[in-house]
Automatic annotation (TrEMBL):
InterPro entries from the UniProt entry: Thioredoxin, Thioredoxin-like_sf, Thioredoxin_CS, Thioredoxin_domain
Disulphide-bridged cysteine pairs: 30-33
GO molecular function, one term: protein-disulfide reductase activity
Site entry (Contributes to redox potential value), positions: 31-32
Keyword match Transport: yes
Keywords: Disulfide bond, Electron transport, Redox-active center, Transport
Organism placement in taxonomy: Bacteria, Candidatus Shapironibacteriota
Active site: 30, 33
Domain Thioredoxin per the UniProt entry, residue ranges: 1-102
Annotated site, Deprotonates C-terminal active site Cys, chain positions: 24
CDD domains given in the database record: TRX_family
Family assignment from sequence similarity: Belongs to the thioredoxin family.
Descriptive protein name: Thioredoxin
Length: 102
């Protein structure tokens, strides 16, 4: 199960993490976001990639900081550095390709 993060723990959970982190910006009312959840949970289990979720309705501050204007948006961080921004729902393979190309 993915960890929910907010502005208060984002730095600790994402920016200070050694390795890959997928940050899923989502909302409860977003259909494509609901479709994405099992895809990124599979990636987390199979690839030992940390996945965290930011509910934009509860923490719009982070969404603004990272210019998230559309959801779902997945940001890929490696060792605390933003590597890639993926907007919309994509296949599992597309996320894996994005991770391996960074």
């Amino acid at each position: 199960m993915s960890l929910a993060v907010t502005s208060s723990n984002f730095s600790q959970e994402v920016l200070e993490f050694s390795g890959y982190v997928l940050v899923d910006f989502w909302a409860n009312w977003c259909g494509p976001c609901q479709m994405l959840t099992p895809v990124i949970e599979e990636i987390e289990k199979e690839n030992k990639v940390k996945v965290v979720k930011v509910d934009i309705d509860k923490d719009s501050q982070l969404a603004q900081k990272y210019n998230v204007n559309s959801i779902p948006t997945v940001l890929i961080f490696k060792n605390g550095q933003l590597q890639k921004n993926i907007i919309g729902f994509h296949s599992k393979q597309e996320y894996l390709s994005s991770i391996s190309s960074t």
